[in-house]
Amino acid sequence: MYGGFNGMQDLNVQKANQACVSCRKQKRKCSKTLPACALCERMNRHCDYSDATPPPTAEDFNALRMKLMELESRLNGGNGIITSQTNFSTPSGGTLSGSEPLGPPIPGYTPQHESPWQGVQSRFPAIAFLDSHEFKYGGYVQNTMIAVPKPSIEIPVDVLELLGDGPSIQALLNDYFTTIHKWMPIVSQKRLTRNMASPLWEAGPDLALLLLSMKLITSRPQDGIESSHNPAYVSAKGFLALMEATGTVSLIILQAGLLITWFEYGQAIYPAAWMSAGWCVRYGNLLGINNHSEATQLIGHASTWVEQEERRRTWWGVLVTDRIVSIGSQGHILTTQEPKEDSPLPVNDDAWDDGEMSSAMYKLVSSPIDEPAGPFPRLCQASIMMGKVLKHLYGEETASENARFAASQLYLDISILSRKILEEATTSGNYLSLSSPLALTFSTLFTLCKVYSRLKASDAAPSGSPSAESLAMQAQAVDGLKTVSRSVVDFVEQINAATSSPPARDRVSPIIMDALYKAANNYAWLVRESGDEASQMALESIRHCLRRLGARWRNAAEYLRILEAQEFTYAVGSAGS
What we know:
Layout: H1 21-26, H2 38-43, H3 58-75, E1 87-89, E2 95-97, H4 127-130, H5 132-137, H6 157-163, H7 166-178, H8 180-183, H9 189-197, H10 205-217, H11 231-245, H12 251-266, H13 272-287, H14 305-325, H15 349-354, H16 375-395, H17 401-428, H18 435-452, H19 468-498, H20 502-505, H21 513-530, H22 533-549, H23 554-576
Antiparallel strand pairs: 1-2
Helix pairs in contact: 6-10, 7-10, 10-11, 10-12, 11-12, 12-13, 12-14, 13-14, 14-16, 16-17, 16-18, 17-18, 18-19, 18-21, 19-21, 19-22, 21-22, 21-23, 22-23
């Protein structure tokens, strides 16, 4: 049983003589089926076929106002002014009214489609932001003097139509948990399945948004259609904005927002992906799941281990998402959200999926790298390394001797993590499961080495020439770029072998594309500099992989397009020199 989403109807049921009260009030088409119409059954609400006329609501008054505007527009002839019956010719061949307008122009009326925004109000307590200390410690939370409301809004019809019936939703869940969940496991499959199977559990609009986001991120791009025009994407963005406007506070909404952000990142929808990643950080802070001691737990305290772990994984998902979306922009915003040494990492993935607390292995951020860990904890560790590199590059003077020593130590630490992940990926026999954290370590090494591979004016010695230390650091950085690039070529071969079939490509994460692009970019530079044939072959191998994966994630196709544009620019420049 799937709450309000089964949508299944019996064609032989009896029908009422009139529409139900809810459909009449909302002016929607009613199926009139007994004992409940199709819409009420989907919404899991009481269906009333009585003759009683419901009292007028804000929506009724709004509809009356719209009808008045329509009447005024018709009286005005639809052209914005009230005119007389007599018109005079003008020199330009037009007509001029025989009377002056009676008032300011009124725009012509355009019939409005039914909107779920009508009557939407937010009663979220402003004190939670204007004075959070008073909200948390002044008795408001404890004594519920000011409670965070749970807005009751109806699920938009387009969302219900996109989700379909019970079997469709079950197929969607199976697809999601065998693909996306493998590299971004933030939703508890065990808890969600158990809740949806319970006849006493009521599915709310936040769950509908999550299911729609799952449908969105599992969808493949369609030729000739922009991903931003995907009906599921348009509905999901509008539904998320509606939930935000009502002040809804829910962990499920944050999970849906993360999946929407990953869809935008994977399908190269910008600047939406950049803005959505920031929204997830803010919303996670709003919920109070960011491990901050002063954070107000607006969603209450977790009652079970599974719930606590789901919150922890969701917040790690927020940090990882914000980090990865920022990799190529060169505009990462340093925050105080970085995890501390004593922050717990997500538990091993198998225990999480099985809901077995007894088999969970707890690790901290400071835990040694050589201890075994699952794919998602490894992704979090790789993200921490990227955070250290970004802090080093943006927060320190890279030309100083201490900074160069720190960079060398960072390169060593990241390389150790990369080799450990590669070892686990090779021995596990499931390379794809660890491809995301492995690729992120490659991206991190590229980001670090690229800065030191180029000499700056500040690297010059008093004589004006580059200092010996700067030249040595540059040589190490260039050698590091070549080493990582060779590792990416081996990585590409493993990815190609593991994705020989289209279903297998659905398990590939869009996270890996940045590392592929950076390696290809480095090989393209080597080809231009020396015409090296081995570099040309490596470049073609990476481009072939990007071309194959571009059918699933369009950010791969965008990276490939950038590479081709660079090659074209170089060819034109060489021909003109």
